[in-house]
Every structure is written in C-alpha cells, then in structure tokens.
Design a protein that fits this description.
The chain is of the alpha+beta class and about 270 residues long. The chain has helices spanning about 50-55, 60-75, 80-95, 110-120, 130-150, 195-215, 230-245, 255-265, and strands at about 5-20, 25-35, 40-45, 100, 105-110, 160-165, 175-180, 185-190, 220-225, 245-250. α6 packs parallel to α7 (about 230-245).
Length: about 270
Amino acid sequence: MAGEERMTLRYRILRYTPNVARDEWVNIGVLLERAEGNERALRLIEEEHLARVRRLHPEADLDLLRALPAELGGRLAGPGEKAAAELARWNDTMSNVLQFSPAKGLLAEDFQAELARLYEEQVGPPPRARGGLAESARSWLRGKLRDVFRRHGVFGKMKANVRVEEFTHPGDTFKFDFAYQNGARGFVQSVLLARDVLPSKAMTYTAGHIRRRYADAEFAAVTDAEPALENPRHQFLVQLFEEQNIRVVPMARVEKFAEELRVRLQ
C-alpha cells in the first residue's frame, strides 16, 4: 500500500526531579506537537507505573503527579499560541521540580503512533519490569499489530491503550490495546495463547460490561498463533471468546482483518 505522507513533528520529555539538590530526574511524560499547525498531545505516566517512580525516588510526591493530567490538560485545551504560552508559563513556574526537555524534531507518518512509540521508549518501564518474558512477547505482538494497522492506514483512526473503567468500575486498570468507532464501537486486544488465561477472562468480563451500554460493540482477540485443536488451553480461550462473541484473529490472518477495518473506517 502507498505510504502515508510524512509530517514534521517535535517532542519534549517531561521530567520530574523530586530532589533538586541531587539533580536526578525520572521521565514522566512526553509532549508531541506538529511543527506547523495546532495539533499537540501530552501523554503522562500511567497510574500503575507510579509505584516505579516511588521505588526510584522514595520522596516522590505522587499526589502532585496524579494531579498533572487535569492541570496540564486544561492548559493544552486552548488554541495553539495560547496553549504554547500557558505551557511556557507553567514550565517556568515548576522548573525546580518539573521541567520539559529541549524540543527535538522528527519525521513520522502517524501522529498517534509516534506518540505511543515515544512513550514506550522514553517513559514506560522497560519490558522486563513489566512482567519479564511474557510482557516482552506481548509488547512484540502489540508492536506487530500496530505496524499492520499503520500499513493499512487505520491506526490514525484508532485510540491506543484505552482504559475501561468508564464501562466497568472506577479503578479498573484493564486496558484494550486499540479501540475505534465508526457507528459501532470496536475494541482489539493482543492475546498470548500460552499465557493469557487471566487477561482473557478480564477481557470477556469487560466485553460483557461494555455491551450492557453498547449492544452492538464488537471485539477482536488477535492471537500470536493459530489455536491448536489438540491444545486444551488454546481451546479453552477460543470457547471463552466465542461465549462473548469475541472474534479470534490469529496473527497470520491479521492483514485481512486490518483491510476489512480500512474499508469500514473510511
């Protein structure tokens, strides 16, 4: 497929310095902007990763970090020049504890994909800190899926790392890898057949809750392999998904799935 037009972007990393005297910081967010235009987005460290900040810096003010989404979200909400001025004033005010790094430029085809990549690379915990080999494999699968969606021109029409607590209960930490909406709401999750029994149960529980509000919601579980008939665990997961009308898409057939989405999300 023809590649998408590349755009010029710039990004800055938000750093938190709990002990100014030691001049040690931890990356807690990434701000991405178009070099031309008003598009900008800030992705901050996720709640479940704040414990890692506390481990690195026992004196860290987690209440301050939890307040950042509301604080910075309001400053980013205005027009381009106003938002830039608000962020500059905030940066000057908080420079002893919170500070944006100098801006760096880059070229990319997809704004949201680049934001997700920068977050994983600059802010998110290393793969081994997120569950060892299983999480490394899951990250690889999500990355492959993201690449397929980008090639088929649908990633820009999706949201990544979608929290579900608005559908279930406050505090629910489950997240879908990808979500979209074109009439019906859709959710896509990567699944390791050999390891993801409990995450798959959480997915089916979540699907049930979402369908209480959106009866036509659709779900897909993209598996790392074709479910084997002779493997009881594989077949258990297949049955689990079938009971909640969750489509099973082995990675070998994900190109066709992405093309179907491309046609529907135009």
